[in-house]
Amino acid sequence: MPTTAFDQFTRRTADITAQLTTLGIPLTALAPAPADADPTDPWAIRYAVPIDRSTLAWCTAVQMLASHHDTGIDHQVPAADALMRECGVRGLTQLHTDLHHGAPIDYRFTRCPYCSGIGEDPTRPDCQDVGCAPWHEFAGHEHLCPVCHGDDYQPQWFAEEQMTDLEELLADAIEENEERALLQTRTRLRCRTVRT
To answer: Most buried of 3, 26, 92, 155 (most Cβ within 10 A)?
Structure first.
């Protein structure tokens, strides 16, 4: 039976939810209401926002945290809940950056933890299924991955392109340095002729 790139997302959520079920952790969690909330305050949080632990984003977050901290997912459930409650799917970008000690992540060279480098939101149907016009593919299309924003993961191609750019910059710097040295030599010769 042929498998597609999208099968890995189904497997990821199935594996995580199976582990949660085995550990006796519910697949839905209610956000705790703040203890100091004033019931007469109209701006206070009054409703508990449920966290669905069977979504791809939550499963990705708990998997990233467990892998980074080298612990079981049961130790990272509260952290994943908090991340999804506070930031949602876009919080995975910040989490990925934080796990790499605050360094910016270039998703052309690092595989996106959410979409695994395909560049599209794996929870939404693709353009072919929806029937989007072909020109939507190129400018600000809404099917892009919310974490990597559709960066094309091709480290071999981008590395080669980057090396070509660096070689051009080096050649330009060498040429500029040679021109500067020639100009300095001419200036010295003129200064000597003026003195004599």
So the answer is: 92
C-alpha span between 75 and 136 (Å, rounded): 42
The answer to whether 82 and 94 have CB atoms below 8 angstroms apart is no
- Whose structure tokens read 């480290």? 155
113 exposure class (CB count in 10 Å sphere: 0-12, 13-18, 19+): buried
Q: Tokens 């497997």 belong to which residue?
A: 11
CB 111 within 8 A of CB 152: no
The interaxial angle of helices 73-86 and 91-99, nearest 10 deg, is: 130
Report the number of secondary-structure helices (H) and strands (E) in the chain: 6, 2
In our burial notation (b when 16+ CB lie closer than 10 A, e otherwise), range 133-170 reads eeeeeeeeeebbbbbbebbebeeeeeeeeeeeeeeeee
* Per-residue pLDDT tens digits for 73-89: 989 988 898 888 888 88
Instruction: Compute the distance between CA of residue 19 and CA of residue 40 in angstroms, rounded to an integer.
Output: 41
Spacing of C-alpha 187 from chain mean position: 53
DSSP 33: P
pLDDT in tens, 142-183: 677 888 888 888 888 777 777 888 888 888 888 888 888 888
Q: Which helix (H) or strand (E) holds 94?
A: helix 91-99
